[in-house]
Design brief:
Chain lengths: ~450, ~220
Amino acid sequence: MGSVEEPARWHRGDEPFGHWHRGPFWLRHRGTGGPLRRDTAERLAGGVASGLAVWRGFNITTVRIVFVLVCLIPSGFCVPLYVVAWLLIPAAGEDTSIGHRARSDSRGIALAAGLATLLAFLLFVANVVGNGWVDSYAWPQLVTVAGLVLIWRNGSPEEQATLRRLAEPLGSAPNPAARTRWSAIRLAVAGVLILGGAGWLASAHESLALLRPLGAVLLVIAGIVLVLGPWWLRIARDLSMERQAKVRAEERADISAQVHDSVLQTLALIQRRADDPQKVIQLARLQERELRSWLFEGRAPNEADEDMTLAAGVRQIQQDVEARYGVPVEAVTVGDCELDENLNGLLAAAREATVNAAKWSGASVISLFAEVEPDSVSVVVRDRGKGFVPAAVPADRKGLAESVHGRMARRGGTAEVVSGPGEGTKVTLKMPRSAADSPARRP
Amino acid sequence: MSGVPRVVLVDDHGLFRSGVRAELGRQVEVVGEADDVQPAIEVISSAQPDVVLLDVHLPGGGGQAVLQAIKPLYPSVRFLALSASDAPEDVIAVIRAGARGYVTKTISTAELADAIRRVAAGDAVFSHRLAGFVLDAFASGGPADPGVKPSFDPELDQLTSREREVLRLIAQGYTYKEIARELFISVKTVESHVSSVLRKLQLSSRHQLTRWAAERRLT
């Protein structure tokens, strides 16, 4: 029931998790790939259905229809299940679930338990009166009621507003202060009346008697799910939290590499050119532009435009480095292809290597060679400058270690640095091309 | 050929000619200059130099016209193409018209002198850019165009892996000497690889070559 026709939804908020699609198939999500979160933006009630839809890449309407259909199964476990999900799944953008917060709300728990006991008593009475018809549908609703109470007390203001909105048709007293008490009583009465009515109906029809064993089985399943469900959910959530933390760490590394590439490099340049105010101003402007485009337009300064090709990216590196450092760059590109995230990383690493060569090698010219092969893209940055001993570079020097090696390694590529004092430096970067990529394009 | 090579400069920019003449100094003997196709043909015919430094872009028909006029008359005169801009179709056209090499005008004096000597000795000279073009043009393409009949020698239609390696290193800015060291072969072998590539470039009827150059023009 996945909707292949809705690619836009698949990619919602996809960026930080984009590379998760590798991995065992049962962890591979067709949706965002992120942890399961209730989608508060699209929700009708708790946002469970829309969250599920976004998470798995399903069509949201399909999910809702299935939810409603399942709710019609006479055991009635679906509604409490929904409420439990509402309780246990954190809303998008939050770390803790309502259930987590509710644990410290002793009054709320007492209230929920009290209400549930009261309802249980009512049901018990009704059960005795009505020859045992209620249990299949009504008992699970104890969980619903208790859960809703906890959500109402511990949810975010918007969620409380949603609950109120949902309850509005039932309890529309004009005065909000008088409304809560009145509506609670009215709700309880209405609930008992509706359940009672439905129960009478069910017991009145002989044909429905067949459904009771089924209801009982479903009730047991619902019970197991209720007992073990939170535990399963927690395991699943811990797993996704862990992955999220890993992604965050990678993001941080990307950001620090970014800052190093742009801001720190420019600051170093400004220090070196401190005696040339014109140049300093020019550098500062350039950096400001880059930083702005990164912060506000979400475009990494060293990253190419989205519709750029590799050759254009290489050309841009050439132009930028020549403009900024005044060292000629001889760029040669063989073949061409569209850029993707990995190749953007490759270009960023190539830029870093080129900038390094321009800054430190003292070479009069830098050669930048990129070749697109069917299964990989390689870039070679080479200078005939003074070179260095790669092993002697202190670990805290970020340039090659993080910006080049780290960048490449994070995306499955390799970086090789060959250098020696007086022998120049050669940085060879190789990035495998993703299989989904279109074959090499020759412009 | 004894001592320094005798050179004719063909370039429509007088400043460039005098610059090259001054820079090259005694490393070559400049026996003539020309600023357009017709004068160039006359000067070359009379001076019969070892090497003609030929600008790809000339007002009266381009360097190609000079090559086409001279080659049949004086096959011993060798041409080294030179340009500031690097439109691949121009470069490939000049090479296929018979130039033994191609360098950009940003080349250093020492390298230019070296390139002239090499061409004079009958070798081929590829700039990094040309090496990139050739790799690109010969990259494993689709099947041959049905409209074009294949080369009489299918070997001409593809590069050997060694040739490819050499071209790659040239494209990365390596000198022949550095390539020789990198690949553990002699400079002479490097030269022969490059010459072989040049021959393929000139003789191959590989359709990609023409079509590739034409497509490049669009970008």
